[in-house]
Task: inverse folding
């Protein structure tokens, strides 16, 4: 199908399908976090070995983002999104069968590589289907789908682990992922991304021309956000089990609250970024992150812990809309795809180091409490790069729209 007006009803129907796929993409990377400690014991791993295992998936997810956008231009964005659902499903089957560290590592590689394909392909597909008049709402719906997936992943996993064993959680998500792949393949039209504004060698505006001091500051900001995001996503359930004494089931439910709060954070971040400005929204969201990361090891009451996790999830996800809007503000239209590929690479590439660093720190300090203090410091440092980011008026003039 060629990009063009197709009617609002069809646009939102297709977007809802892609929203389900977005949720599945994030679920693939998070469903195993409630039983990481169980995997650690089953495979006889120390903290460092566990950290390397998780970082394998996150690193593959980050490094694959940039080439994935180019590949999807050639094979079609819908087809790439389907592949992004199928490859991790095979990884889940391998995880179900894994009896050694290396089998599990191969499973995590397949999960990471497969899921890395999704964001560049899906963003191109959704924005092409929606067109300018409906693009903002469509991207909002698509973003909320990702949070719903993050919410359901630990909750469903906790349920299946409570009823059976951790291996069946891998099998459950493989089946769900293949079902979503079929839904996308049958329920969304194909849209080729390559157009007049793009040449065979890349975007018409060379990416090197955009690498200003302001852009490098934004990339550093995004990279540090990726580090504390992935650190929380990877270790929150394990931290709740180790530091707060929660069961696998309860830790999964509480971790799900983090992502449920993120649904509200996404919506609030989009509204506030337009109402009070990108940089001010990022400032307050980052302060919320730093405070909750630092306080979480100290919270022991049930209500206080729930409030802390909720505020943390809201603060993490309130950052995403203004950061993405800031990138688009100072990027010419003909280079936006390439630059977002670079942004994803910075975010998920550096973020992939967080589980490894967390494992090392937990091994040396005897637990994950110190890691959350490190995440608080990372959030605080990121504010120095926010100060160096382009002023909003100048950024929008540079982007041209």
Result:
């Amino acid at each position: 199908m060629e990009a063009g007006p197709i009617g609002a009803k069809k646009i939102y129907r297709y977007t809802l399908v892609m929203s389900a796929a977005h949720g599945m993409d994030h679920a693939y990377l998070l469903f195993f976090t409630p039983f990481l400690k169980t995997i650690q014991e089953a495979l006889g791993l120390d903290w460092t070995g566990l950290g390397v295992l998780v970082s394998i998936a996150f690193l593959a997810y980050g490094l694959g983002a940039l080439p994935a956008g180019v590949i999807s231009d050639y094979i079609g964005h819908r087809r790439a999104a389907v592949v992004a659902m199928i490859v991790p499903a095979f990884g889940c089957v391998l995880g179900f069968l894994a009896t050694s560290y290396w089998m599990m590592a191969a499973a995590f590689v397949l999960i990471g590589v497969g899921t890395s394909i999704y964001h560049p392909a899906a963003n191109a597909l959704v924005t092409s289907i929606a067109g300018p008049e409906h693009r903002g709402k469509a991207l909002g719906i698509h973003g909320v789908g990702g949070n719903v997936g993050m919410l359901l992943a630990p909750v469903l996993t906790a349920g299946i682990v409570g009823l059976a064993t951790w291996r069946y959680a891998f099998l459950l998500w493989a089946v769900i992922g293949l079902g979503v792949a079929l839904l996308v393949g049958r329920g969304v039209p194909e849209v080729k991304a390559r157009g007049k504004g793009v040449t065979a060698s890349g975007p018409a505006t060379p990416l090197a021309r955009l690498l200003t001091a302001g852009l490098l500051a934004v990339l550093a900001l995004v990279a540090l956000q990726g580090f504390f995001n992935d650190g929380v996503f990877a270790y929150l359930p394990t931290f709740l089990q180790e530091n707060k004494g929660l069961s696998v089931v309860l830790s999964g439910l509480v971790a799900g609250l983090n992502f449920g709060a993120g649904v509200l954070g996404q919506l609030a971040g989009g509204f506030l970024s337009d109402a009070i400005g990108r940089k001010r929204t990022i400032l307050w969201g980052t302060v919320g992150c730093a405070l909750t990361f630092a306080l979480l090891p100290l919270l022991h009451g049930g209500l206080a812990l729930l409030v802390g996790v909720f505020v943390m999830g809201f603060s993490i996800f309130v950052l995403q809309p203004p950061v993405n809007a800031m990138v688009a503000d100072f990027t010419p239209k003909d280079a936006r795809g390439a630059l977002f590929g670079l942004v994803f690479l910075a975010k998920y590439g550096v973020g992939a180091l967080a589980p490894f660093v967390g494992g090392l720190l937990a091994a040396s300090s005897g637990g994950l409490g110190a890691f959350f203090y490190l995440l608080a410091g990372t959030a605080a440092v990121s504010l120095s790069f926010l100060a160096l980011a382009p002023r909003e008026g100048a950024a929008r003039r540079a982007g041209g729209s």
In short: Confidence is low (pLDDT under 50) at residues 196-204.
